[in-house]
Amino acid sequence: MTRIYFNEVVTRDGFQIEPEFIATDAKVALIDALSLCGYAKIEATSFVSPKAIPMLRDAEEVMGRITRAPEVEYTVLVPNLRGAERALESKADELNLVMSTSETHNRANLRMGREQSFAALAEVVRHVDGRTPINVSLSTAFGCPMEGDVPEAEVVQFAERFAGLGVRGLTICDTTGMAHPGQVAHMVETLQQRVKGVQLTLHFHNTRGMGLANLLAAVQGGIVRFDGSLGGLGGCPYAPGASGNICSEDAVHMLHAMGYDTGMDLPRLLSVARGLPYIVGHDVPGQVAKAGLITDLHPAPQAQ
Ligand code: COA
Ligand code: ZN
Q1: What confidence tens digit (pLDDT) does each residue in 186-200 have?
Q2: Ligand of minimum distance to the alpha carbon of 109
Q3: Structural element, H or E, at residue 103
Q4: Is 4 in contact with 261 (CB distance < 8 Å)?
Q5: Going from the N-terminus, what domains does the chain have, and what CATH number goes with each?
């Protein structure tokens, strides 16, 4: 059965929208626990402006203190050259550059137009010069909460231009949960035809309850790499109405039930997930951590 690879984004996408600062110790302990769960990759933090995302102002300390598992790649979000320098210094295994395919969201999130972002990120790729693999995340690729539709052709055009720069991977992000499975099926078919030789990852948010349906559409379309967030936390503070990513443990549970190999230790993952509400101080959207596995049976009620 097909092997599916998961990238855990809870300490980046998950935490960046949390209102209360999460202590560095708690972030490090959580990443260390997640490192033993079978992930292919963990997006540990962001090297962005601490004014833009105060939650992740401790990025250097987090990267310096985590215990790295040899089989896990530790990636970090990078918005500009300054972020790339910080990421290289911290010995990240991958730099995840980011820009939005919607002009309006790009201006809200990164304070510049798309063409300016593309030029700046192309400069980062040249500067890194193969020292560390580069992934590029294209945000709002399935719709923008301010502009509405983002034409597939524009997403593909940016994907092709980054592939032309020699990046290793591209992540196609549904930043505010606007994608539906039909749209996903079409997008992944087009992208696989047009950008060959690049690792494609899909990043979904469950804002409108379509997250796992979208994941399944992508799996059925041949995609094997996904971002997920523990407990279903997440969201971009610069995208109105943003809410959580697809929940990693719910996605893994569904794929295991269907017979897919994810390499994940689901019982261990669930036990880490059950600790998450204590870290963030509130309930989280994930469902399987509450309901149990489909194989966890209950005793029949006593006959009256
Ligand atoms: N790391 C740390 N500090 C950074 C930085 C980085 N990568 N990039 C810029 N800064 C600092 C500058 O030094 C400057 O600091 P100062 O005010 O103390 O002098 C300040 O941030 C503003 O710098 P400037 O170059 O004018 O950037 P900006 O204000 O136009 O912001 C970004 C641009 C991209 C740096 C900022 O919008 C950002 O970090 N966005 C990321 C948003 C995000 O993570 N969204 C969610 C994930 S998609
Ligand atoms: Zn996201």
Answers
A1: 999 999 999 999 999
A2: 1
A3: helix 103-110
A4: yes
A5: 5-291 (3.20.20.70)
